[in-house]
Write a structure and sequence with these properties.
Length: about 140
Protein backbone atom coordinates (compact mmCIF):
# COMPACT_ATOMS: atom_id res chain seq x y z
CA UNK A 1 0.00 0.00 0.00
CA UNK A 2 2.96 2.30 0.52
CA UNK A 3 3.57 2.24 -3.22
CA UNK A 4 0.30 4.12 -3.79
CA UNK A 5 0.47 7.88 -4.06
CA UNK A 6 -1.44 9.41 -1.12
CA UNK A 7 -3.52 11.45 -3.59
CA UNK A 8 -4.93 8.24 -5.12
CA UNK A 9 -7.48 5.80 -3.80
CA UNK A 10 -6.07 2.57 -2.35
CA UNK A 11 -7.45 -0.73 -3.59
CA UNK A 12 -6.01 -3.49 -1.44
CA UNK A 13 -5.57 -6.86 -3.10
CA UNK A 14 -4.35 -9.41 -0.51
CA UNK A 15 -3.22 -11.86 -3.20
CA UNK A 16 -1.15 -9.20 -4.95
CA UNK A 17 0.42 -8.03 -1.69
CA UNK A 18 1.91 -11.46 -0.97
CA UNK A 19 3.53 -12.11 -4.34
CA UNK A 20 7.29 -12.58 -4.54
CA UNK A 21 7.58 -10.74 -7.83
CA UNK A 22 6.77 -7.19 -8.79
CA UNK A 23 6.43 -4.17 -6.55
CA UNK A 24 5.52 -5.98 -3.31
CA UNK A 25 6.88 -6.16 0.23
CA UNK A 26 7.83 -9.86 -0.05
CA UNK A 27 9.82 -9.15 -3.23
CA UNK A 28 11.74 -6.36 -1.50
CA UNK A 29 12.38 -8.54 1.57
CA UNK A 30 13.53 -11.45 -0.60
CA UNK A 31 15.94 -9.22 -2.53
CA UNK A 32 17.36 -7.83 0.71
CA UNK A 33 17.81 -11.34 2.15
CA UNK A 34 19.51 -12.53 -1.05
CA UNK A 35 21.94 -9.59 -1.01
CA UNK A 36 22.68 -10.18 2.68
CA UNK A 37 23.42 -13.82 1.90
CA UNK A 38 26.03 -12.75 -0.65
CA UNK A 39 27.71 -10.45 1.86
CA UNK A 40 27.64 -13.09 4.59
CA UNK A 41 29.31 -15.63 2.30
CA UNK A 42 31.87 -13.09 1.07
CA UNK A 43 33.28 -12.27 4.49
CA UNK A 44 35.22 -9.05 5.02
CA UNK A 45 35.18 -6.33 2.36
CA UNK A 46 38.38 -4.54 1.50
CA UNK A 47 38.63 -0.86 2.30
CA UNK A 48 39.20 0.42 -1.24
CA UNK A 49 36.39 -0.39 -3.68
CA UNK A 50 37.00 0.40 -7.31
CA UNK A 51 34.11 1.69 -9.43
CA UNK A 52 34.42 -0.92 -12.16
CA UNK A 53 31.10 -1.10 -13.96
CA UNK A 54 31.44 -3.91 -16.43
CA UNK A 55 27.84 -4.21 -17.64
CA UNK A 56 24.79 -2.10 -18.34
CA UNK A 57 22.97 -3.90 -15.51
CA UNK A 58 25.71 -2.92 -13.08
CA UNK A 59 25.57 0.70 -14.20
CA UNK A 60 21.76 0.73 -13.93
CA UNK A 61 21.99 -0.48 -10.33
CA UNK A 62 24.61 2.16 -9.51
CA UNK A 63 22.33 4.86 -10.96
CA UNK A 64 19.32 3.60 -8.97
CA UNK A 65 21.40 3.74 -5.80
CA UNK A 66 22.73 7.21 -6.62
CA UNK A 67 19.24 8.69 -7.00
CA UNK A 68 17.91 7.12 -3.78
CA UNK A 69 18.80 10.01 -1.38
CA UNK A 70 17.10 12.53 -3.66
CA UNK A 71 13.92 10.41 -3.78
CA UNK A 72 13.87 10.17 0.03
CA UNK A 73 14.18 13.95 0.31
CA UNK A 74 11.37 14.44 -2.21
CA UNK A 75 9.19 11.94 -0.37
CA UNK A 76 9.73 13.74 2.93
CA UNK A 77 9.10 17.18 1.44
CA UNK A 78 5.89 16.02 -0.25
CA UNK A 79 4.67 13.68 2.51
CA UNK A 80 4.63 10.98 -0.15
CA UNK A 81 6.09 7.62 0.96
CA UNK A 82 5.21 6.13 -2.42
CA UNK A 83 8.32 7.83 -3.81
CA UNK A 84 10.48 5.82 -1.39
CA UNK A 85 8.58 2.63 -2.18
CA UNK A 86 9.03 3.18 -5.91
CA UNK A 87 12.76 3.86 -5.61
CA UNK A 88 13.32 0.89 -3.30
CA UNK A 89 11.52 -1.28 -5.83
CA UNK A 90 13.68 0.16 -8.62
CA UNK A 91 16.83 -0.70 -6.65
CA UNK A 92 15.56 -4.24 -5.97
CA UNK A 93 14.62 -4.72 -9.63
CA UNK A 94 17.99 -3.43 -10.85
CA UNK A 95 19.81 -5.61 -8.31
CA UNK A 96 17.88 -8.71 -9.41
CA UNK A 97 18.70 -8.09 -13.07
CA UNK A 98 22.36 -7.49 -12.28
CA UNK A 99 22.55 -10.51 -9.96
CA UNK A 100 21.10 -12.76 -12.68
CA UNK A 101 23.74 -11.64 -15.17
CA UNK A 102 26.81 -11.38 -12.91
CA UNK A 103 29.21 -13.70 -11.18
CA UNK A 104 29.82 -11.93 -7.88
CA UNK A 105 31.43 -14.37 -5.46
CA UNK A 106 33.04 -16.45 -8.20
CA UNK A 107 34.69 -13.49 -9.94
CA UNK A 108 38.39 -14.28 -10.43
CA UNK A 109 39.55 -10.64 -10.80
CA UNK A 110 40.04 -9.43 -7.23
CA UNK A 111 39.36 -5.76 -8.03
CA UNK A 112 36.17 -6.56 -9.93
CA UNK A 113 34.96 -8.94 -7.20
CA UNK A 114 35.66 -6.26 -4.59
CA UNK A 115 33.82 -3.58 -6.55
CA UNK A 116 30.84 -5.89 -7.00
CA UNK A 117 30.74 -6.74 -3.32
CA UNK A 118 30.71 -3.04 -2.46
CA UNK A 119 27.82 -2.60 -4.88
CA UNK A 120 25.99 -5.40 -3.04
CA UNK A 121 26.75 -3.67 0.28
CA UNK A 122 25.38 -0.36 -1.04
CA UNK A 123 22.26 -2.18 -2.21
CA UNK A 124 21.80 -3.76 1.22
CA UNK A 125 22.17 -0.37 2.92
CA UNK A 126 19.66 1.33 0.63
CA UNK A 127 17.13 -1.50 0.84
CA UNK A 128 17.37 -1.67 4.63
CA UNK A 129 16.99 2.08 4.93
CA UNK A 130 14.04 2.14 2.54
CA UNK A 131 12.29 -0.76 4.22
CA UNK A 132 12.77 0.94 7.59
CA UNK A 133 11.31 4.18 6.26
CA UNK A 134 8.32 2.21 4.99
CA UNK A 135 7.85 0.59 8.41
CA UNK A 136 8.96 -2.88 7.26
CA UNK A 137 11.44 -4.91 9.32
CA UNK A 138 14.21 -6.18 7.06
CA UNK A 139 14.73 -9.95 7.23
CA UNK A 140 18.21 -11.31 6.73
CA UNK A 141 16.90 -14.78 5.91
CA UNK A 142 13.70 -15.99 4.28
Amino acid sequence: MAKTNPDNDVIFDPEESLRFEGNTGPYLLYTYARAMSILNRAGELSEQPLPLYSSSEELELAKALATYPEKVESAAAGYNPSLVASQVYEIARAFSQWYASSNILGESQVDLRNARLHLVAATVAALKNGLTLLGIDALEKM
